[in-house]
Amino acid sequence: MPPAMTADLVLRNGRISTLDADSNEVRSVAVWQGRILATGSDADLAALAGPRTERIDLDGKRVVPGIIDSHCHPDGHAISLLRWIDVGWPTVKSVEETLTLVKAKTSALPPGEPLLGFGYNDQKCGGYPSREQLDAVSHGHPVWLYRTDHHIAIVNSKMLERMNVPEGVNNPPHGQFDRDPATGKLTGLMREMAAWSLEERFKETYRVEEYETGLQRVFDLYLRHGVTSLHNSLTARKAIEAYQRLREAKKLAMRIGVILDGRDEALVDSYLDAGVRTGFGDEWIRIIGVEWCPDCSTSGRTAAYYDPYVGKPVPGEPVPNRGMLLYEPEELFPKVARAHAAGLRVCVEGLGDRGIDFALDAIEHALEARPATDHRSRVEHCCFVTPPILERIKKLGVIDSSATGFMYSLGDAYIANRGEAAMRWMFPHRTLIDAGIPAPGHSDAPVCGTNPWEIMGSLVTRRTDTGKPMGPEEAITLTEALHAYTTLGAHAGFEEDLKGSIEPGKLADFAVLETDPFAGPAEAIKETKTAMTIVGGEIKYAA
């Protein structure tokens, strides 16, 4: 007679890394109604298979828990894929190639339509195109190119005109319109709030339906790498509706953690007034917290440091340049304290040492007003973690939400802008692990790529995408890197009871790997391929 309960799915004959507390490896896992029913040997689980059970022979393939990218921007990525063009590396590899692309694209645009580009990498392309160069190739169309970090934009004269930005414009608070040091003329490069405040005019035109369409394309980019859960940083209100629509239409292929955009004060107020707390939702769409961005980009030379940037400054850049903070304490601290007191977990961006200290000041202020033990407040990106900052993070019980993707994709810019010696404390994961500080990793995509294996490889080798060493003292093992994208990602979302490891009762989210990253040299980890991605016991991607 068949057993009283039979599995819906059994994966057998594999090498399954459970990442449980004992680091067990098993051969087989059984799934029932989207959850893990049992793990063990093939023989142990054979009795759980019935006539309707789907059986998958893994043929010795490695299986790991579904990967969690705990800070990325799938909503913004979705719109970029629909409305913007990719001007990132390696689509363009130089200023000249960028200008050629702008010339070709603008020649086909209807009269007056702007050309919007994302992902430009000045470090790899040898600088920025000038305002005059863009004017010469844009056929009279407004042009806006966002740097890869989304904190600096370069525009042409027609875009300045379109946005009503005159030559004599004053800098906004916490932003700058760069000017040529010799002529005083606007260069077309806009930093932080100078760009963000203008970008709001684009955002007003985005539609919920566009988010629905674009998000499905973004999901495909992640699923092909074994990623099953995303924390959407700074989630747009229209994206929140789009996620719900996708779920209702059974098109939500991944699990989404919503981190509210603290810049949208009306949105945050509505959640606080309704008493919505961290954890509200279910295993598909869940509220993670609310985020503010007082500190921004090291690769773009705007993040706040105590010591000035090194290397060649961009014309019009402040000299000496120690970066900028985008909030004053009296403006940010009450917002963070109110959200924390209401049970909505706070996430504050800090990259440079001055920026991280500012984020910790805001969190500490909130904790003094409302003490909490397991609050899991997060410093987002948390790049330059010096020993004094590390001690503050540990003392306050804060999560180091580490932008590990920057190491791989933007590491060369970090070295150029801060110097090789500073890399000793840039993303210091060996020290963080040894100190017992939870430090989940993330891509910040589309700032960086959606492939977590490139990033995990960089954590192990401590090398950038071009092979430059980046603080080799802080190298960690592959297992430790994998924990940063599974168990620690779950911990960062208060979801360790649901995901992050392969254990009975947890969600049946798995990455079946075509190539085993444990079997080859560390340099090959970035080449890891995914054979199959399973979410809730259903195959969402198959190579």
Summarize the structure.
This protein is of the alpha/beta class and 543 residues long.
Q: How are the SSEs ordered, and which strands pair?
A:
Blueprint: E1 9-12, E2 15-17, E3 25-26, E4 28-32, E5 35-40, H1 42-46, E6 54-57, E7 62-65, E8 67-72, H2 74-83, E9 85-86, H3 95-107, E10 115-120, H4 122-125, H5 131-137, E11 143-147, E12 152-155, H6 157-162, E13 175-179, E14 186-192, H7 193-203, H8 208-223, E15 227-235, H9 237-248, E16 255-261, H10 265-273, E17 285-292, H11 329-341, E18 346-350, H12 353-369, E19 378-381, H13 387-396, E20 399-402, H14 405-409, H15 411-418, H16 429-434, H17 452-461, H18 478-484, H19 487-492, E21 510-513, E22 530-535, E23 538-542
Helix pairs in contact: 2-8, 8-9, 11-12, 12-13
Describe the protein in words.
The chain is an alpha/beta fold and 543 residues long. Among the domains are: 52 residues, Urease, subunit C, domain 1 (Roll), CATH 2.30.40; 121 residues, Diaminopimelate Epimerase, Chain A, domain 1. The chain has 19 helices and 23 strands. A seven-stranded parallel β-sheet has the order 8-15-16-17-18-19-20. Helix 2 packs across helix 8, helix 8 crosses helix 9 and helix 11 crosses helix 12. The protein starts with 8 loop residues before the first strand and ends with a strand. The relative contact order is 0.13. The mean pLDDT is 96.
